[in-house]
Amino acid sequence: MGHKIHIRICNRLCCRFGIRVLIAASVVIPSLASAQNQEDSDIGAPASSEAYVDRLIDDGNLELSLTSEVVRVTNTTGNLRSLVAELNGARISSTSNADSIDTSPFDNVQQEAGVLVSARYQTDNFGLLGLDAQLGRGSRPDPFAVANGDRWTGLFELTSSGLPLGSGWLIDSALGTTSTPLIGLFDRQARFFLPVTPILGGAVTFDAYRPVAPGESFSDPKPFASFNLSVGEPGLLGGLLLTDYTGLSGLLVSAGGQSELSPGLTAGVQAIAVDDTRDPFAVILGSSDPGGDTRFVSSRAIVGSMGLSRQKFRLQANAVWSTRSSNGVAPSEYLADGDAHGASLDAVYRSGRSIHNGGVYYFGPGLTWGTSAILSNAFGAYYRFSTSSQRWRWTFNIDAIDSVDSTGSSGVVVNADFRRNIDFNSAVGVNASLRVANGQSAGQVLGYVDFETGFGSSRAEAGWSSDRLSNLYRIGFIQNWSLPQSLPAGSRLSTQISYQHRSQSDQASQVLNRDLTESADSFGIAMSAGLMPIKDTTIDATFAYSSDASATAAEFFGPFQSTGVSFGTLTSQQTESFSATLVASARLSPSLSLSGTYTDATSSLISRFGIPLFGSPLGLSDDQLDDLRRSSFRLRAAYLTLRYSISAGRPSGFMGAREYPVGGLGKLEGRVFLDENRNGKWDPAESGARGIVVILDGIQAVRTDDVGRYRFEGVADGTHRVTVNADNLPLPWFIEANDKEGIGEPFSAEVEIGVRGTTVLDIAALQRP
């Protein structure tokens, strides 16, 4: 025993003496070398009578050079927190004029004013808490009804995100005006879309995460299992700047879940049920049956999905079934009662820079999801291809679609696009489309050149579009200007000008033009500009004007609008339009800002239907007909927002190594004591060992206090390893691994930390008998 103590003391003395020698050498040797170098440099050089002085410009009191005089000073103490409060006002007025129709019932004004509050607070162990509330008053006219009087509107939502439960489980929840959650599988395919439904109620989502593998990064973890549930009254959202919630009555229940069955194989299901709710289409249109009764509907729907992912390949299959019933009052014009079903299969394959995407689908008529209609009465297939390199980019798409009951549209659409970078400042590209729909075909080709000059970046483009009734040729030029530096900061300017020529076929209907054929020219111009006239103030303005002298209905032009001659005949044509928007914002203080928007848009139309009857045997002249069919429309909108926002705090860290990529925190505490009776438990009569280093996961360490106590605050939940450095333990006491006394193995213990809990670990020091 004496030899061991002597060797230990010698080792400590040698270590301390060696460290002091190294420190002295690190100071003395560079000093000697510097002195020698100074002597060498002074040979043949004049002696300097003044020692070097480090001089600061203006004594180091230079002001900060910032584009803004308003500097936000962030308070970094405490937990993360933020508050946003807004005062909002909006007004929209529309005015229409038609010589042959009384449009006064459609001219109305929508306006609102209110306050919005949004607050967030990051807790240590209860997730991110949030509050969103709105209160306003304004008019809410129905789309097809005369404006009603002003009314109060309001909503609120309480949220909690990332509430830890332990073992890799988190909860997201919401209460108030929220929406139904969906499983993540539906975001990973191209064709099948399920809408979320606004509800007044509650929603909760459970996510589970697997333990972190050694060396694995968890910067963006994904749950391997997820489950959701929501209950409430379904509704509709509207409003201008503020959100307006309109309840539909009834009850909605939604539930779903998904889980990874094996590596790369995930399955999930989502279901929704709605009982005795008002038909949303009748509410939107403001319609009711002649008897005055309200139409109520109920629906059920369920969808299952399974996805298989490999390194370069992904395959997903979906199947959906729904049923809908109503109370028999005035059947809906948009959704019929009864059962419906559908399915889709989507695949993605990646090979280097190339991506292949394709699938097939079938959706029967009348599919619904809750209170919403989804893709229905359609079946078909699609294929997408894209590839790119440093110079080339290619894309190719083809879609084929048909209606299940032969009452809808059918056809094929093909689109191809390529772009080649000639150098760093120039590129060329071509886009071509072809559509064959309902027995008609239409196509277009657009080519462009991108280049840069001393005036800025430019694009020149030329296109041609053709269908059975007309041909259109178009050229355009877009310029993003490089402005002089003498202009105010933030100045920008871009312009666009275009010219188009349309020729109408002699096979056009006489309803459109008695001359059968026509050639017309039109042009368009647009500008977007912005600047910062004074510090912390920005102004942006855009305007656009277009003129079309053609008498042909616009629906006859373009590959994506020529779907039916009869429909195109009974439409209207825009002959002239102008729109202007002005946006201004100013930062009044680090926390206060003011912004406003004003928009003014006008357009002229020629109606292709509703030609009035006349009694004169001679009829009306062409000019008189055009006057009767001519109309105009003007929309003016103004928005104003006063915004106050503050944020403070910093993210709270955690101690130890995480077992799960996300989770909560707990505490680890205990004491290191001299176990005189060797029972492994601390007794009140036993002394604590001060100055002992307790190490958590080999990352963080603390020392015991005068009575041997230690504590780790904010330890990540899960399993952790605790070790000690007992160099300060008085002799002849020692700490070794439990149940391995005398072997000399260092102490190590595993502890389990629970969320919002305290784990106690006492460490006993023994003395040899």
UniProtKB/TrEMBL annotation:
Q: What protein name does the entry list?
A: SdrD B-like domain-containing protein
Q: What UniProt keywords apply to this chain's record, in alphabetical order?
A: Secreted, Signal
Pfam families found in the cross-reference section = SdrD_B (PF17210)
Asked whether the UniProt record includes tRNA-binding among its keywords, one would answer: no
On the tree of life, the source organism's domain of life is: Bacteria
The residues forming the signal peptide are: 1-35
KW Amino-acid biosynthesis (keyword) present: no
Q: From which source organism is this entry?
A: Erythrobacter fulvus
Q: Give its localization.
A: Secreted
Residue ranges of every copy of the SD-repeat containing protein B domain listed in the record? 670-727
